[in-house]
Amino acid sequence: MTVNSKHDGPIRRKDALDYHEFPRPGKVEVLPTKPLSTQRDLGLAYSPGVAEPCREIAADPQAAFRYTNRKNLVGIITNGTATLGLGDIGALASKPVMEGKAVLFKVLAGIDAFDIELDERDPDAFARCVKALEPTFGGINLEDIAAPHCFAIEERLRDELDIPVFHDDQHGTAIITGAALINALALQKKEIEEVRVVFAGAGAGAVACARLYESLGVKRDHITMVDIHGVIFEGREIDMDPYKGYFARKTDKRSLDEVMVDADVFVGLAAGGIISREMVASMAERPIIFALANPDPEIAYPEVMAVRDDAIMATGRSDYPNQVNNVLGFPFIFRGALDVGARRITESMKLAAVHALAALAREDVPEVVSEAYDESHIRFGPEYIIPKPFDPRVLLRLSPAIAEAAMAEGVARESVDLPTYVEALERLQGVSKGLMRRLINVAKREPKRIVFPEGTEDKIIKAAQILVDEGIACPILLGPVDVIRARAKELDIDLTGIELLDNERDPRFEELAHVYYRMRQRKGVTIADARDHLRSPEPYAMLLVHEGLADGVVSGVTRPYRESLKPALQIIGVDERQSRVAGMHVVVTRRGVKLFADTTVNIDPDADTLADIAIATADAARLFDLEPRVAMLSYTNFGASRHPDASRVAEATQIVKERRPNLNVDGEMQLEFATEADLRADKFAFSTLEGEANVLIFPDLNASNIGYKLLNQLGGAEVIGPILLGMRRPVNVLQFACSVPSIVHLTVVTCLRAQQLDRERDAR
């Protein structure tokens, strides 16, 4: 087992392999952007219609950016000679890394990317292959190519290609540490022209960082580079090349410990553990230390702090302050370059990225970022000199800076209006990005004890492991303990932190049986019946929550929904503030987060029930930081039909308005008018619904259940749920086809509901 960080939890070998293999191998796929359902579509997509854009491109090659995906397509190209911390593993073995990079391009910046692994070690031949691919791509991301070949390859391609070429291992690290250096120097009150910088490592990243630092103002004769053979000095012959030679110094010092004395800045791009406390202690006052080797830095953060509390430090790890992660750079650099059709990525564009990142770290940090990282006080200072890797604002600062610099330098094929461009990037980003991660980090602030009645099931055991690893909840698995242990062993799962409870052998069994008997004795239940019922884990789980011995229940993997719901209603019951329960799904779409209800409980609700469902769902919206905008859906709009089904929705709308006059709600209306505010305003200016609806109340269970499943199965929307609304205590019931992630997500929501109830109780 390897440990990533306190935030990410342990990453186990089997988990990583399963993630890459199931439900289908790999991490990426190709999806069409145009319909292909009719003969006409076929004629447009292929012969004869495809000839028209071909003719246009033949006449004007730049037209390829209009008529093909070239403008939004990046090639991630490697030969696998310097893969992550694995070294020279070859082209084929590096493919998972390149696929991962393609995923980051898409998720973070909306860029399509093809990974290409070239089994070619000769730099000239490699460069020729990449050059031959130029017509395919709008940009080239070179990746994991060993030095010194990577320098020659990039230089040649940059000169010969008319699209941006960017070797991320060089320039990504340089840009991010450059931003960190600017801010660290400001905090340490040092001038960049005066500082002395030591590099451990002389590969692609180190050379690129040193060159960029020189562009930022560090004097070249203030830079000392050390590799495995020692200091790079004038006249050295061992293992030299022109790129190292550029930084050769006239010095009689030959070892790392010698050059560390009185150094202001240390940049490590070498190997873990090579820096001692004594070396750190010998540095100048208020030192800056970037120990970037992964997974283990050249020296650990606690080691530095033990001898130099005046130091500012960054590493490549997320469990220490100031994580240097290239994901802060390459997706957004390419986004800006592609959007203006940049012909290359220039030095001024790189410097623009540096200053944009540095400036962003000095801004006030919004709550959404603090929540995502489970840190309540993120502010500019020694432990926050660069933005967090998944800060959503990076796209909105870095890409416009790149675009502006490209236009100013004259390497852009087209111009953009920057304010309009920022608005477009905001739409690309969408409000749904990172929803689950934000919810998880809220749950982690106060983990709750959640009972799983089906504790012997593989999916539940796997989910429980994730919940413990990420610190989300304290799971209690019900069932025969020996059976659970045996299944966990077969699954290679460590049960540390997971409570196992055999309800039939629980010392509290008899006491709880009498509690249940008193609850149900006037429903025909005898004490013998009570004991018999509680031998089933599901009612026992509900009783644990009813008695405050646990905080919530998640069940339903092995039983029909209504069978699992029955003991919840009998034992925990409906919240006295609600008249009935309802089911809700959170549907995360490209258009944002939508709440669908009722999706699981009320089959054919009357007007009063629909009104209750709408109010309960609107209240639940705030659990997800949504200001509810409620649409009461129908097949018709605002009285156009007098059919009883439509009239029932209209009546429900009126009831909601009477009960909650301040709620943003209207209906009955068709879906397109609920989700298109401009269309609704044009056709029905009288409508009281403001904005695009995010709470969709369906007229019956058929429509809602089919609706969310269609979006999930055919539309690719992420779905969280079903979430049971209206219960006195947190209970949620899964569905047969649930996956391990869906169990985890529903448990997160159960924890949030438990936290919410605690706050309400404390306020009373």
TrEMBL record:
<dbReference type="Pfam" id="PF03949">
    <property type="entry name" value="Malic_M"/>
</dbReference>
<dbReference type="InterPro" id="IPR002505">
    <property type="entry name" value="PTA_PTB"/>
</dbReference>
<feature type="domain" description="Malic enzyme N-terminal">
    <location>
        <begin position="25"/>
        <end position="158"/>
    </location>
</feature>
<dbReference type="InterPro" id="IPR042112">
    <property type="entry name" value="P_AcTrfase_dom2"/>
</dbReference>
<protein>
    <submittedName>
        <fullName>NADP-dependent malic enzyme</fullName>
    </submittedName>
</protein>
<dbReference type="InterPro" id="IPR012301">
    <property type="entry name" value="Malic_N_dom"/>
</dbReference>
<dbReference type="InterPro" id="IPR012188">
    <property type="entry name" value="ME_PTA"/>
</dbReference>
<dbReference type="InterPro" id="IPR042113">
    <property type="entry name" value="P_AcTrfase_dom1"/>
</dbReference>
<feature type="domain" description="Malic enzyme NAD-binding">
    <location>
        <begin position="170"/>
        <end position="407"/>
    </location>
</feature>
<dbReference type="InterPro" id="IPR046346">
    <property type="entry name" value="Aminoacid_DH-like_N_sf"/>
</dbReference>
<dbReference type="Pfam" id="PF00390">
    <property type="entry name" value="malic"/>
</dbReference>
<dbReference type="InterPro" id="IPR037062">
    <property type="entry name" value="Malic_N_dom_sf"/>
</dbReference>
<dbReference type="InterPro" id="IPR045213">
    <property type="entry name" value="Malic_NAD-bd_bact_type"/>
</dbReference>
<comment type="similarity">
    <text>In the C-terminal section; belongs to the phosphate acetyltransferase and butyryltransferase family.</text>
</comment>
<dbReference type="InterPro" id="IPR012302">
    <property type="entry name" value="Malic_NAD-bd"/>
</dbReference>
<keyword id="KW-0511">Multifunctional enzyme</keyword>
<comment type="similarity">
    <text>In the N-terminal section; belongs to the malic enzymes family.</text>
</comment>
<dbReference type="InterPro" id="IPR036291">
    <property type="entry name" value="NAD(P)-bd_dom_sf"/>
</dbReference>
<keyword id="KW-0560">Oxidoreductase</keyword>
<dbReference type="InterPro" id="IPR051674">
    <property type="entry name" value="Malate_Decarboxylase"/>
</dbReference>
<dbReference type="Pfam" id="PF01515">
    <property type="entry name" value="PTA_PTB"/>
</dbReference>
